[in-house]
Amino acid sequence: MLFTKSLIFITLFGLTVTLKCWEDVNVNGHKHTDGKSKQNCASGCDYCMKTVSMIGSVESATWGCGCGEENGPAIANACTSKGRFNYGIGEVNCCKGNLCNSAHSKAFPMILISFFSLFSLMFLK
Fold first, then answer.
1. Where is the signal peptide (predicted)?
2. Angle, to 10 degrees, between the axis of helix 110-123 and the axis of helix 2-17?
3. pLDDT single digits (tens) 16-39
4. Parallel, antiparallel, or unpaired for β 83-87 and 37-40?
5. Residue 3: other Cβ atoms inside 10 A
6. What's this model's pTM, rounded to 2 decimal places?
7. Which residues, in sequence order, are bridge partners of residue 49?
8. What is the pLDDT of residues 83-123, one digit of tens each?
9. 20-95-63-12 Cα dihedral, nearest 10 degrees
10. Residue 22 in contact with residue 105, Cβ under 8 Å?
């Protein structure tokens, strides 16, 4: 029985290690498109990001992981802390936590789901 509980804990812990961020591109505004999706970030990546750029009178936005090669080498380490950072033609907004790079996210944190699942398996009989 202890082996089963340990196996479940390891499995649930593995689910919480990888950060998830919204991934999307909107070349005509700063709101999500219908094509938004969840992106698994590289191991060790702690930040999600949203970039907003203004080229002429056209505003565009991208969402994704704030570190790792998922978004290309130009922004591989765009986020090293939480906050808003200006760059030449726009800004990068960095946040920490699953799906934090959208004001519309109502995701229940995976760590809490894992905790309650583990708690119920270990202590409720």
1. 1-18
2. 170
3. 568 999 999 999 888 899 999 999
4. unpaired
5. 7
6. 0.65
7. 64, 94
8. 999 988 889 999 999 999 985 434 444 444 444 455 555 55
9. 0
10. yes
CA distances from 56 to 27, 28, 97 (A): 12, 12, 33
Give the total residue count for the chain.
125
Sheet with 37-40: list strands edge to edge: 37-40, 20-26, 58-65, 47-55, 90-96, 83-87
Complete domains list, the chain, with CATH = 18-99 (2.10.60)
Copy the structure tokens of residue 59: 């505003």
The stretches of the chain forming alpha helices (DSSP H) are 2-17, 110-123
- With residue 26 as reference, give the H or E element that holds it: strand 20-26
Tokens of 121: 């398996």
Q: What type of residue is 78?
A: A
- Which DSSP symbol is given to 114? H
